Amino acid sequence: MDDGGGWPKGLRVGVGLAAGAFLLAVGFGAFAVTHGWPAWLTITTSAVVFSGSAQFALVTALAGGGGLGPALTSAALMNLRFVPMAAATARFLPGGPLQRAAQGQAVVDGSWVAAQRPGGGLDRQLMFGATLVQWPAWILGTALGALVVPGGAALEATGLDVIFPGFFGLLLFDSLRASPRLAPAGLLAAAIAATCRFLPSGIALTLAAAAATFALRQPARIKEPQP
After folding, report:
1. To 5 degrees, how large is the angle CA 170–CA 172–CA 174?
2. Which of 137, 78, 85 is nearest to 116 (CA)?
3. Element housing 179 (H / E)
4. Residue ranges for the chain with pLDDT beneath 70
5. Neighbouring-strand partners of residue 122
6. For residue 154, which phi and psi values (nearest 5 degrees)?
7. Which 3-state string (H, E, C) describes 47-110?
């Protein structure tokens, strides 16, 4: 039996995460349409991809004239973080490969961080509940941004342009508070982020991803869940 918060706590946590995801999605919807994407494609991308960082990277790279190849590479680099996250989660997901792959769709940043147990392990039901609330909020927010927000000036006027870095900043703060050993990686990532604005997106993302290697030097010991 799970000793974590389960579905009820996951749904409660998901409401707070969904509020941030909704505002972030409004920013993405407006950003994509402002850079030439049709509204239907913008909304479909959010429904299928459901990854703000990858979606912003894709639009940014295409808008910068980098072509489809560099744009897809940038988006893929952003989503590489899900590989170690999914690997750490797999042991807590029951069933065969297909069942675990389906459950793995719930591994998104906010839900995954919230589902970490203080003593090690992961509350998978909490993660499922939190993600279940966020997905429709992400789609609805994208639709609102794509269909209603008129352009880039509105993004700056409403502060939607700073929600994306603020959202990930809060996740980083929570991670460092729970695992101080990640501080070197966090500090390096912050230093890289300060210079990334002057670099092409593909190079910037590659350098930023390199900061994660510091977190691999001292692997965390994760306790297996008790039956």
Report:
1. 70
2. 85
3. none
4. 1-4, 66, 150-172, 174-179, 181-182, 193, 196-197, 199-227
5. 116
6. -70, -35
7. HHHCCHHHHHHHHHHHHCCCCHHHHHHHHHHHHCCHHHHHHHHHCCCCCCHHHHHHHHHHCCHH
What is the rounded radius of gyration, in angstroms, for the C-alpha atoms of the chain? 18
**pLDDT for the residue 199:** 66
Cα gap 138→22, rounded to integer Å: 5
Per-residue H/E/C for 119-149: CCCECHHHHHHHHHHHHHHHHHHHHHHHHCC
φ, ψ for residue 115, nearest 5 deg: -85, -5
Q: By C-alpha distance, which of 139, 130, 76 is closest to 108?
A: 130
Give the separation between CA 219 and CA 7, rounded to whole angstroms: 29
How far apart, in Å, do the first and last CA atoms of the chain sit? 6
Single-letter amino acid, residue 75: A
pTM of the model: 0.71
Instruction: Say which residue the tokens 């995460």 belong to.
Output: 17
Nearest one of 64, 35, 56 to 162, comparing CA atoms:
56
